[in-house]
Amino acid sequence: MTKLKIFIIISVISMSLPNLAFGQTMNREQLQDFVEQFLKNNIPLPTQGKMTVSVSSIDPRIIIKPCLSSLVANIPQNHNGRNVNVKIICNDPAPWYLFIPARIQMVVPVVVAKSIISKGSRVDESNVIIEYRDTRRIRGETLDDTRIVIGTRAKRKLSVGAILTKKNICFVCKGSHITIIAKSDSLMIKTAGIALKDGGIGEQIRVKNVSSGRTVIGRVSAINKVVINL
């Protein structure tokens, strides 16, 4: 995750925590709840992602003073995206502040191998599943819908739990029989072809027209389909 630059003044804290009374000593649980809600409200989620926030316990030796002002919450610029030291500030005439550490985990849905998928094997409903994975442990361009990958083939052996990416599966595989679609605004011609290279959705690859024997370049549009724009 990119470093976030967030400095947000929270409006009257009682709107978020109605049981918190100003001018009285705040208990640790209320401050921890405040920090958790602040992070959930102000750190953006990735698409379809989920966030888990774990707020550290406040040292029991710390005396929490009353605060008559609205609290200010500040996330330092140099945090690493996972471990955050939230600074809580009370701007009373006798101001005080307190750092409360929290740990953030972001997870997103990805397609993973439900069972071992051998190199060259076809991906189908029986061997893939959706799981949520920590974004910091994900590498490559992942996929979040099993329907997208059904009919693709594994470019290498995929173990149980391996994340399917556009680099370890091919929508068009080298040597596969494919459909070449040549089209313009007013014309569309389909013919049989053979892929001369592996390709993912949107990638340009070389293919051979079976009828003419010519080699042309087209863009992968779907499983075993390549489009040439005339």
Tell me what you see in this structure.
This protein is mainly beta and 230 residues long. It has three domains: 6-106; 108-170, Antifreeze-like/N-acetylneuraminic acid synthase C-terminal domain (Type Iii Antifreeze Protein Isoform Hplc 12); 177-229, Roll (SH3 type barrels), CATH 2.30.30. Helices cover 8% and strands 37% of the residues. The protein is built from two helices and 13 strands; from the N terminus they run βαβββββαβββββββ. It has helices at residues 28-42, 146-149; strands spanning 6-8, 50-55, 72-75, 83-90, 96-113, 128-134, 153-154, 169-170, 177-183, 188-195, 204-209, 215-222, 225-229. β10 and β11 (204-209) form a beta hairpin. It is elongated and about 85 Å long. The two termini are 41 Å apart.
Structural class: mainly beta
- Count of alpha and pi helical runs: 2
Uncertain runs are 1-24
Describe the biggest sheet? 6 strands, antiparallel
- As a whole number of angstroms, the C-alpha radius of gyration is 27 Å
Count of spatially separate domains: 3
Q: Estimate the global geometry from the Cα principal axes.
A: elongated
Order of helices and strands: EHEEEEEHEEEEEEE
Q: What's the SSE blueprint?
A:
Layout: E1 6-8, H1 28-42, E2 50-55, E3 72-75, E4 83-90, E5 96-113, E6 128-134, H2 146-149, E7 153-154, E8 169-170, E9 177-183, E10 188-195, E11 204-209, E12 215-222, E13 225-229
Parallel strand pairs: 9-13
Antiparallel strand pairs: 1-3, 2-5, 3-4, 4-5, 5-6, 7-8, 9-10, 10-11, 11-12, 12-13
